[in-house]
């Protein structure tokens, strides 16, 4: 196994104990019923994690949207809309931008224009509003990054854990990156170890399964990420060079996400040269940032150069007025999808579909539908 040993600060462990006490008290209040939770009369699927930073929540949410939508269900996605400049409930339109609804919701709405994409920091209120929609009514709600939002009693909790930083090896904030103790994994019906490398060995699956120490009723899956060919962020802008990225290309990777390593590694396998500019998660690009990007890009071979970013960053960059015109023809986004490993895609899909079948709002999903494809 080539998982990373999480970096922890021993100096901050006293603060982590205080933080952990607060988290423990909050959890006990929910367990005792002192803080009200609410269940809803339709399937609600929660995707979340125990750590701060990227575990692949957005691509896994998109996987579920494809799977459920492919079964003819009317899917709604609900997010708090992190770092948006608005408040309250908003149902996204085709012209909604990251400032209005947040980076990840903007990305999903761009990718799935027919999706009912809503944001609300009060998830209970958000679900109530989604249930008011008609023509057609919502069949299932997928909540992104909501494992700690226990005010909503989701019917199916999917917990994501990064292969490179397993929560069983980590510490609570601020000494480590855990939002909740590892014990909280027991609230999930499904646990997914994400971002597994292509060369993962069969024995690694067993080692991780033992370390995760799940209950018999919990299901464990492993997923990896697959990248497609870079797609132009501004397809109407013509550039002088055409063709896919190959070993002759020089690439400037520009990201504003928590964990860009897998993207950089993928591009490194494809390109002759890779330069990197990484900013913080949900970074708002400034004029100074774009000057840095222009300077780095100018150092690459002008006949075989390109800028590649993530789909999430592209959704934000596409709508910023600060982006220089001369960069637009060269700006590409790397599409990403989830791949279920161990030949267990059908089992994973069936777990999701069985939950929805058993908890329908208005109709029952036909039995025998093909669960092989998402």
Quick structural gist:
It contains ten helices and 14 strands. It is of the alpha/beta class and 374 residues long.
Can you tag this structure with a few keywords?
374 residues; alpha/beta; 2 domains; 9-stranded mixed sheet; 29% helix; globular; ATP-binding; LpxK
Describe the structure.
By secondary structure, the chain is of the alpha/beta class. The chain has two domains: 35-226 and 339-358, P-loop containing nucleotide triphosphate hydrolases (Rossmann fold); 231-334. It has helices spanning 13-31, 57-70, 98-101, 103-111, 123-131, 202-212, 261-270, 287-298, 311-317, 345-358, and strands spanning 44-49, 75-79, 90-91, 116-119, 140-144, 156-162, 190-194, 219-227, 231-232, 250-255, 273-278, 305-310, 331-334, 336-340. A nine-stranded mixed sheet has the order 3-4-2-5-1-6-7-8-14, sandwiched between helices. Helix 4 (103-111) crosses helix 9. The longest helix is centred in the N-terminal third of the chain and has 19 residues, at 13-31. The two termini are 29 Å apart.
């Amino acid at each position: 196994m080539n998982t990373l040993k999480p970096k922890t600060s021993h100096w901050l462990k006293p603060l982590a104990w205080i933080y952990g006490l607060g988290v423990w008290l909050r959890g006990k209040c929910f367990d005792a019923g002192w803080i009200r939770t609410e269940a809803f009369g339709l399937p609600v699927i929660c995707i979340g994690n125990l750590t701060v930073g990227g575990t692949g929540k957005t691509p896994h949410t998109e996987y579920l949207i494809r799977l459920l939508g492919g079964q003819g269900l009317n899917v709604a996605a609900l997010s708090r809309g992190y770092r948006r400049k608005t408040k309250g409930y908003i149902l996204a339109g085709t012209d909604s931008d990251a400032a209005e609804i947040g980076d990840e919701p903007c990305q999903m709405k761009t990718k799935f224009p027919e999706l009912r994409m809503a944001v609300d920091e009060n998830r209970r209120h958000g679900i109530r509003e989604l249930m008011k929609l008609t023509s057609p009514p919502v069949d299932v709600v997928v909540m992104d990054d909501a494992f700690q939002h226990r005010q909503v009693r989701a019917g199916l909790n999917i917990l994501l854990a990064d292969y490179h930083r397993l929560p069983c090896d980590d510490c609570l904030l601020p000494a480590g990156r855990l939002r909740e103790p590892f014990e909280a994994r027991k609230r999930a019906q499904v646990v997914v170890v994400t971002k597994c490398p292509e060369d993962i060995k069969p024995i690694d699956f067993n080692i991780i399964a033992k370390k995760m120490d799940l209950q018999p009723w919990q299901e464990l899956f492993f997923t990896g990420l697959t990248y497609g060919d870079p797609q132009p962020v501004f397809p109407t802008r013509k550039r002088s060079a055409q063709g896919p990225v190959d070993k002759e290309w020089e690439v400037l990777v520009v990201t504003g996400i928590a964990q860009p390593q897998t993207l950089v590694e993928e591009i490194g396998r494809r390109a002759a040269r890779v330069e990197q500019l990484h900013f913080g998660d949900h970074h708002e690009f400034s004029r100074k940032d774009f000057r840095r990007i222009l300077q780095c890009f100018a150092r690459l071979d002008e006949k075989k150069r390109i800028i590649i970013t993530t789909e999430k960053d592209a959704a934000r960059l596409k709508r910023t007025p600060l982006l220089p015109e001369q960069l637009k023809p060269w700006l590409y986004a790397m599409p990403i999808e989830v791949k279920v490993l161990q030949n267990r895609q059908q089992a994973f899909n069936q777990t999701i579909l069985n939950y929805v079948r058993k908890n329908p709002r208005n109709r029952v999903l036909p039995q025998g539908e093909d669960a092989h494809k998402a």
